[in-house]
Design goal:
Blueprint: H1 4-26, H2 31-38, H3 42-49, H4 57-60, H5 63-78, H6 83-98, H7 102-110, H8 129-148, E1 164-167, E2 177-179, E3 185-187, E4 190-192, E5 198-199, H9 204-214, E6 221-226, H10 229-236, E7 241-243, H11 250-260, E8 266-269, E9 278-283, H12 286-299
Parallel strand pairs: 7-8
Antiparallel strand pairs: 1-2, 1-6, 2-5, 3-4, 6-9, 8-9
Helix pairs in contact: 1-2, 1-5, 1-7, 2-3, 5-6, 8-12, 9-11
Organism: Salinirubellus salinus
GO molecular function: DNA binding
Pfam families: HTH_3, ThiN
């Protein structure tokens, strides 16, 4: 794991200081004057001047960096700009370059897992894609832990397996929905989660959730359990419940069900030719979905 601040310190800052020190020396300032203006030691200025500091060529060749160095050098040398003003100007550029730009690309190169986001994010933005995705995965993990430790949940798992899914805020397809690869299974009476949640690994439950969202539902998460009239009746005590036709296209059937009442939080069908009857619980996040099922498990009638 490497933080973007490390990229700034290791790649940007030495190059930027070296360029600015060279610019100031070129304007006739002494090493002492340059050291005072930049808040560094004279020995550091000497190293910059002698080329003893590694320079990142991508940073040095960036026209915005070059322009800023020239502007700060002129302002500092003439006394029309204070060191604090120069620092503020540099900080502005750093933040700009961190947002899907030069520093974001250097960060990606030094930390390959970021490649999935293609550098198009601001790492410090609380709503940036990596942070949002991490929060969604954490929510699904927490929900899964709740289901794994819920007595009676295994009895709610249908023959095709269950899944707990949560979508990114602006989800458009299944690649924007986190879920369990391979689904949650009943293994000898215990709910078993085969691996950690990932994005893009659920088609069915994610498809139901996405169809509901496209029809106007505010739900960000869903979980499926087996169908039983008693289960539907128990859910109906706390949820708006609507049946849909399993033999109709999911997008159409779920869409019509949600459009009939956008506050629906439970969708179910009683099966069809080769289709197992299933109940879907919609919720604001994976934890809330797990809590709804957890409460249901405690009331589950014994077969």
């Amino acid at each position: 794991m490497r933080f973007v601040e490390e990229v700034v310190v290791d790649e940007f800052l030495p190059t930027f200081r070296s360029m600015l020190a060279a610019d100031l020396r070129g304007r006739g300032l002494t090493q002492t004057e340059v050291a005072d203006l930049l808040g560094i030691s004279q020995s550091a200025v000497s190293k910059y001047a002698q080329g003893e500091v590694d320079v990142n060529e991508a940073v040095a060749a960036d026209e915005r960096v070059e322009r800023l160095v020239a502007r700060l050098g002129e302002g500092l040398a003439e006394g029309s700009m204070s060191p604090v003003q120069a620092l503020a100007e540099a900080e502005v550029l750093v933040r700009q370059l961190e947002h899907g730009d030069l520093l974001a690309r250097l960060h990606e190169e030094s930390f390959p897992p970021l490649a999935a986001y293609e550098g198009d994010f601001a790492i410090h933005d609380p709503d940036s894609e990596p942070r949002t995705a991490a929060r969604v995965l954490a929510s699904v993990r927490q929900g899964l832990r709740m289901l794994e430790t819920t007595s009676g949940f295994a009895a709610l798992i249908p023959a095709v397996g269950s899944n707990l899914v949560e979508a990114l805020p602006d989800a458009e397809g299944i690649t924007d929905v986190a879920a369990v690869p391979g689904r949650i299974l009943d293994v000898k009476g215990r709910a078993t989660v085969p691996s950690d949640p990932e994005f893009g690994v659920s088609e069915h439950v994610a498809g139901v959730l996405l169809a509901a969202r496209r029809a106007g539902s505010d739900a960000r998460a869903a979980v499926n359990v087996r169908y039983d009239p008693a289960i539907v009746a128990a859910l109906a005590e706390r949820h708006v419940t609507v049946e849909f036709d399993a033999e109709v296209n999911v997008e159409t059937a779920v869409g019509e069900a949600i459009e009939s009442n956008p506050t629906v939080t439970v969708l179910y069908h009683t099966g069809g030719f080769g289709v197992e009857p299933i109940v879907y619980v919609l919720a604001e996040d994976a934890v809330a979905a797990a809590e709804a099922v957890r409460g249901l498990a405690s009331e589950e009638p014994k077969p």
